[in-house]
Design brief:
This protein is mainly alpha-helical. Helix 19 runs antiparallel to helix 20.
Length: 579
C-alpha cells in the first residue's frame, strides 16, 4: 500500500514536470504547490507507517504477555505435593526392578507397574515362555504381599481358585471358604490361560476383578494379571475380557534381542525372583520408602484433582467413533470411564494437574480387542493428539472470516471518518457496528490465544519427554512426528491470533488502548494491516506441503502456487530445525 502510494506521488511529480516546461510565474507556483503536496503526502505516509508499526508492536507484546511459559509447567511439576517430585525416582526404580535381566520387556514392565499403582487389571497375550509369569511374580514383590498363581483349565474348580470350604463353618451351617493362600487373600494374582474360566467360577471371579469383592467382603488384592495364548471366542467370556483394562501383546524376543538375552550372566533372573530370607524380602521390597500404600493413596488423591479437559474428552469421544466406524469395535462406557481414570493417574504421576495429549498415547493399550488393531489405533492417536479444536479447513474458514471482518471494518471506518467511540461525529449506528466487530475480534483472540497456549504446553512436553509409562522408542518416534506437526499448527494459529488482535487494537479507542491509531489515520492503518497480513496465513494441509514443486504447480493457480512456495520454504525450514 505504501509503495503504491509513493509510486503514485512520483508519477504525479513526473507528470507535473512534463506539463510545465515554461518557467512563467504560474508554472513556478504550480510546481512549488506540487512539491509541498508531495512532501505533505510523504509525511502522512510516514505517520501511517509509524502508527501501523505501533499497533503491530502492541499486538506482539499483548500476545507475549498472554502466552504460556515453560516456567508454568516447571512450577506445576515441582510443587511441594507433586507426585513426580515425591515418587518419580521410586516409580522408575520399580520399573527397572520388574524388567531386570529381561530383554524387550520394557513396555510390559511399565504397564504392569502402572496397573499396580492404578489398581487396574492387565492382560498379557502371547505364547508360553515369554516372561509373563515372571512379570507377575516380580510385581507381587513390589506389592509386598502374597502372590497367587494358577493355570486355569476347563476342569478348574472353585476350590483351586478361592480356597476349600471350611468344614468348621459348615458344622455351623455357614457356607464359607478358607481363602488364606488363595486369590481373595493375595496382593497380586496371576491367572494363566484366563479364558479357560468356566461358568462355575466366572461370576465370582468377575466380582473380584471389577470391585475387588469376594463373598461380600473387600479383598486386599491390588491387581490381577491375566495371561493367555489366545483370545476369547465365546460371548460369555466378553465380560471377563472387558475387566482387563490394560492389554499388551507379548511376543518372543527378536533375533537381535535373543543374542542380548543369551549373553546376560543370569538371563531372565533377578535377585528378587527367589526370596529365601527375610533380609532379601526387605531389600527387594524397599523400592517404595514410605510403602506402596502411601504411593497409591497419594496418586489416587492427586488424580481426583486432575482436570480432564474438553480436548481430552473429545479425543475419547472421537476414538470411540473411529473404533465403531473403522474397526467395527464397540468399547463399553465402563471401559471409557476406567480409561479416563488411568489417564488421570498418568498425569498425576508426572506431577501435572491436567491430562495432556501425551497421556492419551496410553489408549493404544486400552482400546483394542485384537492385537493387530493396536497399530491402527496408535496411528489414529498420533494423527489426533495435537491439541487443536479446529481442523485445517476450519483454520481456512477463520482466515476468510477475518477477511470479511476487515472489509466490513474498513467500510464502517471510512463512513465514520475513523471515529470508533462516537466522540468525533460518527453515527451511533455505525459506531455500534464497529464495536460489535471489535467484540467479535476479541472473541477470536481469546479462543486462539487459549489454543496457542495449549500448543506451547504440548510442544514443551514433547521436546522434554520423560514419560514413565511410554517405551523410550515410542516416545522418540512421537516426538519426531508430533513436534513438527504442532509447530506447523501453532504457526497458523499465531497468524490468525495476530490478525484478530490487530483488528481489535485498530478498532479500539485511544482511551481503551494506547496503541490505537488516531482517527485520521485509522482507515489507512486498517488497510495496511489487512493488505500485509492476509497472505501470511498458511492455508495448506500437511500433505500439500509435502508435495513436489511440479505437482504443486500443476495443482494450483499462479497466485496460490506463489503462496504455496512461501509456505513450502517455511515448512522445510521447520522440518530441518527439528531433525
Amino acid at each position: 500500500m505504501q509503495d503504491d502510494d509513493e509510486e503514485e506521488i512520483l508519477d504525479n511529480e513526473e507528470d507535473g514536470d512534463n506539463d510545465n516546461e515554461s518557467w512563467d510565474t504560474v508554472g513556478v507556483t504550480s510546481s512549488l504547490k506540487k512539491e509541498k503536496d508531495s512532501s505533505s503526502g510523504s509525511s502522512f505516509l510516514k505517520s501511517v507507517e509509524d502508527a501501523t508499526r505501533t499497533v503491530e508492536w502492541a499486538v506482539k507484546d499483548s500476545i507475549r504477555e498472554g502466552g504460556w511459559s515453560s516456567t508454568e509447567l516447571e512450577a506445576e511439576v515441582q510443587r511441594e505435593d507433586s507426585c513426580w517430585r515425591l515418587y518419580s525416582n521410586e516409580l522408575k526404580k520399580a520399573v527397572t526392578m520388574v524388567e531386570q535381566n529381561l530383554v524387550e520387556r520394557d513396555e510390559e514392565a511399565r504397564l504392569v507397574v502402572l496397573g499396580l499403582i492404578s489398581g487396574e487389571n492387565i492382560l498379557l497375550v502371547g505364547p508360553p515362555g515369554t516372561g509373563k509369569s515372571v512379570l507377575g511374580r516380580r510385581l507381587s514383590t513390589l506389592a509386598g504381599g502374597p502372590f497367587f498363581s494358577l493355570l486355569l483349565t476347563k476342569f478348574t474348580t472353585p476350590e483351586e481358585l478361592f480356597g476349600p470350604l471350611s468344614l468348621q463353618a459348615l458344622e455351623q451351617d455357614i457356607y464359607q471358604r478358607c481363602t488364606s493362600g488363595y486369590l481373595p487373600e493375595s496382593s497380586v494374582g496371576f491367572l494363566d490361560e484366563i479364558f479357560k474360566a468356566h461358568s462355575a467360577i466366572l461370576n465370582t471371579l468377575l466380582g473380584i476383578l471389577n470391585e475387588g469383592v469376594y463373598a461380600g467382603k473387600q479383598c486386599p488384592i491390588r491387581c490381577v494379571i491375566g495371561a493367555s495364548n489366545e483370545l476369547p471366542e465365546s460371548e460369555e467370556l466378553d465380560a471377563l475380557y472387558d475387566r482387563f483394562l490394560i492389554r499388551k501383546e507379548v511376543l518372543p524376543v527378536s533375533d537381535e534381542g535373543l543374542v542380548t538375552l543369551l549373553g546376560l550372566p543370569t538371563p531372565g533372573r533377578s535377585p528378587c525372583d527367589h526370596i529365601e530370607s527375610k533380609e532379601e524380602v526387605n531389600e527387594c521390597d524397599m523400592v517404595f520408602s514410605e510403602g506402596l500404600d502411601q504411593v497409591v493413596e497419594a496418586l489416587s488423591e492427586a488424580a481426583n484433582s486432575v482436570v480432564m479437559g474438553d480436548d481430552a474428552c473429545a479425543l475419547l469421544r472421537d476414538l470411540r467413533t473411529f473404533l465403531r466406524q473403522e474397526l467395527d469395535l464397540e468399547i463399553s462406557d465402563r471401559r471409557l470411564v476406567q480409561a479416563c481414570r488411568l489417564l488421570k493417574i498418568s498425569a498425576a504421576s508426572h506431577g501435572r494437574t491436567r491430562v495432556d495429549p501425551i497421556d492419551c498415547m496410553l489408549l493404544q493399550h486400552v482400546a483394542w480387542r485384537l492385537p493387530e488393531q493396536r497399530q491402527a489405533i496408535q496411528e489414529w492417536l498420533w494423527d489426533h493428539l495435537t491439541p487443536t479444536s479446529v481442523t485445517v479447513q476450519a483454520l481456512s474458514a477463520m482466515h476468510l472470516l477475518l477477511d470479511g471482518l476487515y472489509k466490513e471494518a474498513v467500510g464502517l471506518v471510512r463512513t465514520t471518518g475513523g471515529d470508533v467511540a462516537g466522540t468525533a461525529g460518527g453515527r451511533a449506528a455505525d459506531v455500534t457496528s464497529i464495536q460489535s466487530l471489535r467484540i467479535e475480534a476479541v472473541q477470536v483472540c481469546e479462543r486462539f490465544q487459549n489454543l496457542s497456549n495449549k500448543l506451547a504446553r504440548h510442544e514443551e512436553l514433547l521436546q522434554n519427554m520423560n514419560h514413565l509409562w511410554l517405551h523410550p522408542d515410542e516416545a522418540r518416534a512421537a516426538q519426531q512426528l508430533l513436534v513438527s506437526k504442532s509447530k506447523m499448527v501453532s504457526m497458523q494459529v499465531t497468524n490468525i491470533l495476530t490478525q484478530a488482535k490487530c483488528l481489535e487494537v485498530a478498532l479500539s479507542s485511544s482511551s481503551d488502548v494506547l496503541a490505537s491509531p488516531p482517527n485520521e489515520m485509522r482507515l489507512s492503518v486498517l488497510e495496511q494491516l489487512w493488505g500485509s497480513g492476509g497472505d501470511d496465513i498458511p492455508n495448506f494441509t500437511e500433505s500439500e506441503l509435502l508435495m513436489g514443486m511440479k505437482e504443486a504447480k500443476a495443482k494450483f493457480d499462479t497466485e496460490t502456487f506463489r503462496r504455496w512456495k512461501r509456505e513450502y520454504k517455511k515448512f522445510k525450514k521447520l522440518a530441518k530445525n527439528n531433525e
